Amino acid sequence: MCRWLAYSGTPIPLEELLLKRDRSLIDQSLHSRLGATTTNGDGFGVGWYEEGQPPRVYRSTHPAWNDRNLREIAAGISSPLFMAHIRASTGTAIQETNVHPFRYGKWLWMHNGLIRDFAQVKRELVLAVDPSLFPSIEGTTDSECMFYLALTFGLEDDPVLAVERMVGFVEKTGRDHGVEHPLQMTIATTDGTSIWAFRYSSEADSRSLYFSTRMDTLKALYPESVLSLLSDETRAVVSEPLGDLPGAWNEVPEAHVGIIQPGADELRPFVPRA
Amino acid sequence: MCRWLAYSGTPIPLEELLLKRDRSLIDQSLHSRLGATTTNGDGFGVGWYEEGQPPRVYRSTHPAWNDRNLREIAAGISSPLFMAHIRASTGTAIQETNVHPFRYGKWLWMHNGLIRDFAQVKRELVLAVDPSLFPSIEGTTDSECMFYLALTFGLEDDPVLAVERMVGFVEKTGRDHGVEHPLQMTIATTDGTSIWAFRYSSEADSRSLYFSTRMDTLKALYPESVLSLLSDETRAVVSEPLGDLPGAWNEVPEAHVGIIQPGADELRPFVPRA
Amino acid sequence: MCRWLAYSGTPIPLEELLLKRDRSLIDQSLHSRLGATTTNGDGFGVGWYEEGQPPRVYRSTHPAWNDRNLREIAAGISSPLFMAHIRASTGTAIQETNVHPFRYGKWLWMHNGLIRDFAQVKRELVLAVDPSLFPSIEGTTDSECMFYLALTFGLEDDPVLAVERMVGFVEKTGRDHGVEHPLQMTIATTDGTSIWAFRYSSEADSRSLYFSTRMDTLKALYPESVLSLLSDETRAVVSEPLGDLPGAWNEVPEAHVGIIQPGADELRPFVPRA
Amino acid sequence: MCRWLAYSGTPIPLEELLLKRDRSLIDQSLHSRLGATTTNGDGFGVGWYEEGQPPRVYRSTHPAWNDRNLREIAAGISSPLFMAHIRASTGTAIQETNVHPFRYGKWLWMHNGLIRDFAQVKRELVLAVDPSLFPSIEGTTDSECMFYLALTFGLEDDPVLAVERMVGFVEKTGRDHGVEHPLQMTIATTDGTSIWAFRYSSEADSRSLYFSTRMDTLKALYPESVLSLLSDETRAVVSEPLGDLPGAWNEVPEAHVGIIQPGADELRPFVPRA
Questions:
Q1: CA dist B102 → A127, B46, B136 (Å)
Q2: Are the Cβ atoms of B38 and D61 closer than 8 angstroms?
Q3: Peptide bond into A101 cis (omega under 30)
């Protein structure tokens, strides 16, 4: 089972969330507590935005905990919006082109979960990708396939609708092949300004997903803490809570999507569309 | 431009042709003489057969000349039929799943050359792969795509016909997209008993390909040499001559296929079929 | 904490012990039960002997569970004597030259444990290595340093004495630097004919080590099993039991050395020599 | 033969010199013109400084020309002082700990050349390293050994004197072992403020080294060019000229050291000290 986090707010060095504290993302990769598998050593990726630049991505197929380049980069780069993902393969090859986050133009995408019986349905799914997008697919995972389907269904215009249509299509295709519960997912995607975080599974028993509590609430709870350095807009979404601060994390309900955006954040039900 | 060799005959340690002599395959990867690019550092693969076993494949994305595991394996393994390939990418990603030879069941396949404007035609080509074969595609290269098209067109039953149909299909698809010369190739494929080696290009100006001279002729020319240890049936096919023995190599003519097989070998014209 | 196994007896494909059964060595690397760390993803090595050949070694810094080349090699190579090691680094770099087993001439060496405060004592230890051996050191681990010290103290002539002197020297050097318990180790070394397996620690609380039960006993216990295919001489030594066969494994006592050799095997107390 | 560059001046994205133009450093790694070997595929490293931070280093053992992470980082990071190195191994292992630049505190160091018969003299050289510095040595190269000897001889206080003493010591040690010409080097080292670039060899026939012409001169020669964006203080030192601008590069004379520093730069004779 993969692990991921997405961060938006006051620019901080990547290492703050990836490496520094107990129960950081890297620490989780060694000792997953809520995950279905005990080790996440099949690849690590981080994507980040800097002022006026397209997103950059660092990907590695070495276990994150012994990747020295990652430590250098995570210490040297600060960003107001970044995503990181630790992979536990569900069968596809261990190679950089299969490491999340995936990128298309200014968009990043990452996924925890799987399309069940992907080998059976892959051909149909891939052939539904828009022919103009098809050549940009670089890897072989179900996760990247979902990204290109979402792009085909209009991710750049209406992200929630596009993901709802993508999920509907994947579920229909799976069920046509006799797969009872075709899809399991938490997904984060961003255009560099907002972050959309989805929690859904065909069996209504999705993997965990947490939003950080509003910063003004947290600052009131912990007035002396380093949190005072972060803007009230600062938020994180994670597959598993980071750190041990009571009250800091709220579980995203089953079949919901959360949106971190300029102005008020949102939490809405998520309904696949056939 | 890639480099490759295929060997059939008296079992020898892989290192004899891969590593040992001046102008071995590895030496060529550092100092390509006839190739279009000066360096072949984008991956190395070797596939070999042993008595009663399916083919095994070792693949690496490190440059062959500094791969210590390759040296160990090449020294420790002897085989009567093996293939090796050094990759110079024409654009697709550097990853093990893109390293030749590709394998399907008892078959191995490797390629030097390219499908021009592959990104434009890939979707149509992949769509033509038999749905039962589709899930076995692991990488993203034009070369592997050609292999699965050839399998779709009957490689296991009639290899020459299947490759002629594959080439005809690739050329038609390319020309439909306005590509003047869609295909450039030398290809070797084997079922563990025979080797088929193809030289063809749409522009009738194919990359080089050489067959070793008949062993009885070579032994008569060099009666004192180590060649006396090799059976009369022993043959090699290479993209560029190995070693410096005068008279040892004969160029395969443009648009021909050579077949190394039990009994008399064959050399025939190669004609794509639409 | 590392994991290792050493095998001697009827030639078998490496995959039989490395990959095939539940609780194989690779399975252990994902779910260590008796180890001090939960994951062993910092490198994998296997060394093997074949008739009349020097030992060959395959080393990788990718986690063993997703190394495709390892699967190919382990399926294709049979050997009457081999060793395999899965590394969990205690601090030194993740690189092939730090992967066990280490090799010198016909000897292989692997280690689980550590020299405590190695950075403090390394210079003195390395200085004690015979100048003629010094240039052969390729990596930076405590384990390889112990190997070269043992070679300096006569490993090739009297392995038990040499390791006793090495341990005595390492303990003295550590204590001179104020280290209370300088050494923790299980070690296996072989010349291709016999295997010496050591269990020792300065604090008399060593990591686990198991010998397989005599084959004639096991065959009497399990007369219908595949064990009948193995010679009575066949033995394995492992850091943690493989498989689930009751009665198959016997713990090596604290501060002992076991010797698998032609004729009767031996088990003796191990006493460091200053 | 390795290739390197060092840059100081107006902050620019790393990719400007590493990747962008014809005859960039990466381009050189594929088609070395002045080098002793034709390919530099044995590792790539870049070290950079940012305001108020210690130097960061990215190292890879993949060929630079197909390293995607390098392209991301080189596009995303701007720096006023950086160094990059492409390695062609003279024998030591291909691993990240052997990739230049090496780092100690705020210092970086890189080298093109070799200590001849290094295996013979390594033990003596390593034992001359200050015991407090010894544990920081991570790799196995002659180049890193020279760095730690220079640190031992006072690099942090007087870089030119320290390198002169290091070279004198290496030459004496080599000659004691019967090596006629012990050392061949171009070296760049920096503390983040100044850069020292050395050209020297025992045989007085050193590998090439070039300084960029003074910016005011270049701007007068090319008043319309992008050079106008760079400060007059901007300078680069390279093993082989980048780009094709006539008059842009001046060869550093045999046995000289150049110093790029705040205020007037310097060029002085270099004299080893016994």
A1: 23, 10, 11
A2: no
A3: yes
Phi, psi of A241 (to 5 degrees): -55, 140
**In chain B, residues 94-123 whose CB comes closer than 8 Å to chain A:** 95-97, 119-120, 122-123
**Would you give the end-to-end CA distance of chain A in angstroms?**
27
- Model confidence at D3: pLDDT above 90: no
Nearest to D69 by CA among D78, D59, D84, D82: D59
Closest chain A residue to D50 measured between Cα atoms? A76
Q: What residues of B are in contact with residue A119 (Cβ under 8 Å)? A: 135
D139 and C140: CB-CB below 8 Å? yes
Rounded CA separation D118/A115 (Å): 55
The Cα of D17 is separated from the nearest Cα of chain B by a number of Å equal to 22
Interface size A-C, in CB pairs within 8 Å, comes to 33
Taking each helix axis from N to C end, the angle separating B118-127 and B142-152, rounded to the nearest 10 degrees, works out to 30
Distance between CA B92 and CA C25 in Å, rounded?
35
CA gap D197, B177 in Å, rounded: 54
Chain D residues in contact with A68 (beta carbon < 8 A): 59, 96
DSSP string, B34-89: SSSSS---S-EEEEEE-TTS--EEEEESS-GGG-HHHHHHHHH-EEEEEEEEE---
CB contact under 8 A, B30 and D42: no
**B119 sits in which H/E element:** helix B118-127
What b/e string do you get for C75-99 counting C-beta neighbours within 10 Å, with b at 16 or more? bbbbbbbbbbbbbbbbebbbbbbbb
pLDDT in tens, C197-236: 999 999 999 999 999 888 888 777 777 777 778 888 899 9
Distance of CA D43 to the CA centre of its chain: 14
CB contact under 8 A, C41 and A41: yes
Start-end of H helices in C33-141: 68-76, 118-127
- Output the pLDDT for position B36: 39
A73 CB near a chain D CB, below 8 Å?
yes
Which residues, 6+ apart, have CB-to-CB distance to B196 below 8 Å? B159, B160, B163, B187, B188, B189, B190, B257, B258, B259
Do D75 and A56 make contact, defined as CB atoms within 8 angstroms?
yes
3-state secondary structure of B165: helix
Q: Which two tokens stand for residue B39?
A: 């360096």
Residue keyed to tokens 């991570």: D138
DSSP B19: I
Q: How confident is the model over C115-164, as pLDDT tens digits?
A: 999 999 999 999 999 999 999 999 999 999 999 999 999 999 999 999 99
Question: What is the ipTM for the molecules in this complex?
Answer: 0.85
The dihedral built from the CA positions of residue B76, B77, B78 and B82, taken in this order, carries a sign that is: negative
Report how far residue B60's alpha carbon sits from residue B95's, in angstroms, rounded to the nearest whole number: 8
Place of tokens 């034009």: B142
> Are A5 and A17 spatial neighbours (Cβ–Cβ below 8 Å)?
yes
Q: How far is Cα D116 from Cα D255, in angstroms, rounded to an integer?
A: 18
Which residue does chain C place closest to A63, by CA atoms?
Answer: C41
* Assigned token pair, B211: 């067959």
- What are the chain C neighbours of D139 within 8 Å (beta carbons)? 140
Smallest CA–CA distance, residue B158 to chain D, in Å, is: 38
Strand ranges across the sheet with C78-86: C56-60, C44-49, C78-86, C3-13, C235-238, C210-212, C249-251
Residue that is written with structure tokens 């560029």 in the block: B240
Tell me what the mean pLDDT of segment D216-223 comes to.
78
Cα A155 to chain centroid, rounded: 15
Among C95, C99, C115, most D C-beta atoms within 10 A, so best to mutate, is C95
State the average pLDDT for chain B. 89
Task: Output the CA torsion sign for B134, B135, B140, B146.
Answer: negative
8 Å CB contact of A76 and D57: no
